[in-house]
Specification:
The structure holds two protein chains of two kinds. By secondary structure, chain A is mostly helical. Helices cover 74% and strands 0% of the residues of chain A. Residues 299-303 of chain B have low confidence and may be disordered. Classes of the chains: A mainly alpha, B mainly alpha.
């Protein structure tokens, strides 16, 4: 062979890939930069300042929305992770069973149905319950968030369970350990990185949700994303950039932690 | 013996369903159940102030594509909704094609990096994917709005005299959707390219195939499952997109998602909104079925 081909090169591919990365990050980076702008413009730089972070911090609506977002996300990630652990145990530790396909379809349903369709379906259903019971608290949002977080919590937990060696659990069972003991002493210590990863994913997914929250929430129940969506109709100041930057920071931290957790080997 | 194993089986089965119960309960209560109620609502009569009257009617379904003339009460074909459906399908297909155009080379680039670098590049794709959709849409808005970065820059260079109106057009929706859904294309493409046996690519070159021929005859057929999965992952959420067209499209560039919202808000026609969402769901299900078929014809995929 006269000419050595390098398989990693296709004409133009590297260029397009670089364009892709620049395009993916440029808007986000600009958004972060302008959150530190001293002026109130989001395109003209007038010097460095923390003022928009301070104004967001002191904004009562933002405070309330933040607390509400966190409360919902904590409940939703807790509930969905609990359900997902049990469901993952049921679907990895047994042979093929009747109704298995239906169970998988059910668990993955929130991933397949467009969010807007789920959102209006919940609007209709919860409106009926609201009329019947008069209850308009946060529970609707928590249940709705738990439902769409289940597949996200389920996937990393199931992946972890599938990768685990069964022989230890079988040995424990052979030594007459009851199922719960086997789970607590053998399965759980190996499974925890998966559980934590699933819970974190569910937390971020719940924290970021706009569409379903927008339709399910009762009056005065804004979360951070729905508060921002409402603000976008008015005059936009870098305060939104400041809030976005903080949310962005949380997501990035969680993604990196998630990646590290998924790589932990026993 | 047989008896013992069958009671053990029964116990295992009971335990399995007990473990599945909490997840299934929540999913039935807050996902699948409400969908059935939506289907039911689409056959009711709209109430005067939103909500429904408990009276059966086909009206909502007629209204999806028909209009009742207010003068002579005849039904006529109406393209008001149809044109919004058409715009949604068109924009979603264009989004999918553009994501493929940018995503394929990117996934190929990452898959051909040395092992240690790959995870880092993938992290760069995953981070935007887990970043709030609203924030990413908003970041693009800041870039292209009349007083945004792009216009400021162009004015400063002197290429243009007045800001270009980019926001609130079909172009801005397309740009926004490509931007937010691109990672969904790269992830499955990378997954199938990572498994690609690059010695086959080398063999192609050894047999004097050109780069284009290798791409078309060797690489594409092998990563086809990834291409199909990525396309479906981009197409489905694009079709139901709500946030991006609402923030970037303004009032005159509605997509199906916004049309549905309109019926539950100002339109006060819940049955029509319900019928429209069931229609959207049906289109998505057809796309998913086509995907299962296309994927089923491929070689079994080891995950």
């Amino acid at each position: 062979m006269s000419k050595q081909f390098n398989i990693s090169r296709q004409t133009g591919f590297t260029t397009i890939a670089m364009v892709c990365f620049v395009l993916l990050y440029m808007p986000i980076i600009l958004l972060v930069i302008y959150s530190f702008n001293a002026g109130s413009s989001i395109a003209i730089w007038e010097g460095f300042s923390w003022r928009w972070y301070q104004s967001a911090w002191e904004n009562e609506q933002v405070q309330e929305a933040t607390i509400r977002s966190l409360v919902i996300a904590l409940w939703a990630s807790g509930i969905s992770t609990f359900c997902a652990v049990l469901a993952a145990l049921a679907t990895t530790r047994t042979r093929k069973f009747r109704g298995q396909a239906a169970v998988f379809a059910m668990i993955n349903q929130p991933l397949m149905v467009p969010e807007i369709v789920t959102a209006v379906a919940l609007l209709i259903f919860f409106a009926m319950i609201k009329v019947a019971t008069g209850y308009t608290g946060l529970a609707y949002l928590i249940v709705a968030h738990s439902a769409f977080c289940i597949p996200f919590a389920y996937l990393p937990i199931r992946a972890r369970l599938q990768g685990m060696d069964l022989s230890l659990e079988q040995a424990a069972a052979d030594l007459y350990a009851p199922p719960f003991q086997v789970f607590r002493r053998i399965t759980l210590p190996q499974l925890w990185p998966g559980i934590l990863a699933g819970a974190m994913l569910a937390f971020v997914i719940s924290l970021d949700d706009v569409v379903i929250t927008e339709f399910v929430k009762s009056a005065g129940q804004d979360t951070l994303p729905t508060y921002m969506l409402g603000q976008l109709r008015r005059v936009v100041t870098p305060e939104i950039n400041a809030i976005s930057t903080v949310l962005l920071g949380i997501s990035v931290t969680f993604v990196i932690a998630f990646t590290v957790l998924s790589k932990i080997k026993n | 013996m047989a008896d013992m194993s069958s009671t053990a089986d029964a116990r295992a089965s009971r335990r399995r369903w007990l473990l599945l119960a909490p997840a299934l309960f929540i999913l039935v209560f807050a996902a699948a159940g409400p969908l059935l109620i939506t289907l039911f609502y689409s056959f009711l009569t709209p109430g005067d102030y939103g909500g429904v009257e408990w009276q059966g009617s086909w009206q909502a379904w007629f209204n999806v594509f028909m209009e009742r003339d207010i003068f002579d009460d005849t039904l006529a074909w109406s393209d008001a909704h149809l044109s919004i459906f058409w715009r949604s399908v068109k924009l979603s297909l264009m989004t999918t094609v553009l994501c493929l155009f940018f995503g394929f080379p990117t996934a190929y680039f990452i898959a051909t990096r040395p092992k240690k670098q790959r995870d880092l590049w993938m992290l760069l794709i995953i981070i935007p994917f887990w970043t709030n959709l609203l924030i990413r849409t908003f970041a693009i808005v800041e870039l292209i709005r009349a007083e945004g970065t792009v216009n400021t820059l162009l004015l400063w260079i002197g290429v243009i005299d007045a800001p270009i109106q980019m926001l609130f057009t079909e172009f801005s929706i397309l740009l926004g959707m490509v931007y937010v859904y691109l990672p969904l294309m790269v992830l499955p493409l990378y997954a199938s390219m990572e498994r690609l046996d690059f010695s086959l690519v080398e063999a192609g070159y050894d047999l004097y195939a050109t780069r284009l021929q290798v791409l078309r005859r060797v690489i594409l057929p092998l990563v086809k499952p990834g291409v199909i999965a990525g396309s479906i992952l981009v197409f489905v959420p694009s079709l139901g997109a709500y946030v991006t067209p609402r923030v970037m499209g303004g009032g005159n560039q509605l997509m199906i998602g916004n049309l549905i919202e309109l019926q539950f808000g100002q339109g006060r026609n819940w049955p029509l909104g319900a019928a429209l969402s069931i229609t959207l769901l049906a289109i998505v299900m057809v796309a998913l079925l086509a995907y299962v078929r296309a994927a089923g014809n491929q070689e079994p995929h080891r995950v």
